[in-house]
Amino acid sequence: MENYKIPKKSVERLSIYKRILKGIMDAGFTTVSSRELAERAGLNSAQVRKDLVYFGQFGTPGMGYHVSILHRTITKIMGLHKKIPVALIGVGNLGQALLSYQGFKERGFIIESIFDNDREKVGKIKNGLKIMDERNISIEIKKKNIRVGIITIPSSAAQSAANKLIKGGIKGILNFAPIELKVPSRTTVVNVALCEKLEMLSYYLSKRKLL
Amino acid sequence: MENYKIPKKSVERLSIYKRILKGIMDAGFTTVSSRELAERAGLNSAQVRKDLVYFGQFGTPGMGYHVSILHRTITKIMGLHKKIPVALIGVGNLGQALLSYQGFKERGFIIESIFDNDREKVGKIKNGLKIMDERNISIEIKKKNIRVGIITIPSSAAQSAANKLIKGGIKGILNFAPIELKVPSRTTVVNVALCEKLEMLSYYLSKRKLL
DNA sequence: TATTCCTTGTGATAAATTTCACAAATCCTG
DNA sequence: CAGGATTTGTGAAATTTATCACAAGGAATA
Fold first, then answer.
1. Which domains does chain A have, with CATH numbers?
2. Which protein residues have their Cβ less than 7 angstroms from some atom of strand D?
3. According to the model, what pLDDT value does residue B4 have?
């Protein structure tokens, strides 16, 4: 709502609150306090309230927040109430896993086109979609008006694929390749740092001499 | 090295520096400045120096850092120079993708046991490993002295699997389930928040009215 | 209705993280 | 070897993020 700068961390936590609210809602409760939300998320209750206030005043003193209303509100704030057509670049192991991943569909991210640069794969059918040649990314996504691309190809090819997505007018990229993609400022990139997470785990175990 | 508190963010960036150093090394360069590293990582050069100094003094004024030495040092700091036996809990789409994922093997994470609670799957072979019943997690990982578990099952079953891992003496868990696992303090959990990343992307696009 | 109990929203404070800026160290050139 | 050009490591300052603490609003009870 407000146009102040909202901390990236707050946005990330919004997602967590939504998940917790879903659980509380399914358990049949109608209201929840910031204290309870904080406890379940492993945070401070003031932080929960501050985070929520960035987006509006949803609480009632003495009572807390209305679970289903807050859940619906967050869903809307995050734009998760609409369907979003998505293109998948890279039909390898990870790509295929994401193709079958229910979490994407549940959130309205509908994979409509899939690409690979492996001659062996192009033309084959996966989950009802024909694998297309990466060279056709720009044309295809422009034609289908696809807004989001998911990149699951090796780093070496990731930038080139990103360029094709951008040429086709992509708005956002979910990038699984361990590389900092160079994109124009109008394009939003969110990186999923799989390797980094793994290496962090290794570090913490190593530090405690547990390996 | 030091026992001061090292910011979690610095540890995460260590991983990024390592990746960049690898690229510079492969390109044939022998030294690199903090300015160059910062530029490639999209950071401030003072930050790069501060991050590195947490672990020791690796640079030479006027020259910068020795690429391959720094790379090797970071690898060692992160404990990535040793092989780590890993158990995979959940041989679904994501689990199978990780099973074939080279990134794990490259970093010394060797998947040695795989589990699922689906009767249909138990007993089948995947990537040369027999899928075992989740009820045997504790015994099996204790027997094989497995230190790390990767959880790729739905949230509803994740805590129960984590408990079995802990009972078997697991040291670290890489958790893909969107749930805050409750574990004793001696166990390190690193969460991979796939859904949250996706939702963040949705939020940023939605905010800019791009959906 | 009055009173007590909760819980929100928020200004103030504290803590963590990032950036600035510069002395000191080293390299490189002539 | 002198002098200029770099680049590190690091205090200090700035910025960002998290926590505290409390007035004010509303619910619940009697």
1. 8-77 (1.10.10.10), 84-196 (3.40.50.720)
2. A 7-10, 43-44, 46-47, 50, 60-63; B 33-35, 45-46, 49-50, 52-53, 57-65
3. 61
Looking at the whole model, is its pTM more than 0.90?
A: yes
Terminal Cα distance for chain A, rounded: 48
Q: Which residue, among B157, B109, B36, B133, has the nearest Cα to A203 in the 3D structure?
A: B109
Q: Point out the residue among A8, A42, A190 whose CB comes nearest to the CB of B201.
A: A190
Give the three-state DSSP class for A195: helix
**CA A28, A33, A37: angle at the middle one, nearest 5?**
80
pLDDT digits (tens, 9 = 90+) for B170-187: 999 999 999 989 999 899
CA A185 from centre of chain: 19
Per-residue pLDDT tens digits for B144-178: 999 999 999 999 999 999 999 999 999 999 999 99
- Pairwise CA distance, residues A178 & B117, whole Å: 32
pLDDT for position A42:
94
Using DSSP's 3-state secondary structure scheme, residue A203 falls into helix
> Do A114 and A95 contact (CB within 8 A), yes or no?
yes
Torsion angles phi and psi, residue A167, rounded to 5: -60, -35
Number of H helices and E strands in chain B, helices first, is 9, 10
Neighbours of A191 (CB within 10 A): 17
Count of beta carbons in the 10 Å neighbourhood of residue A125: 9
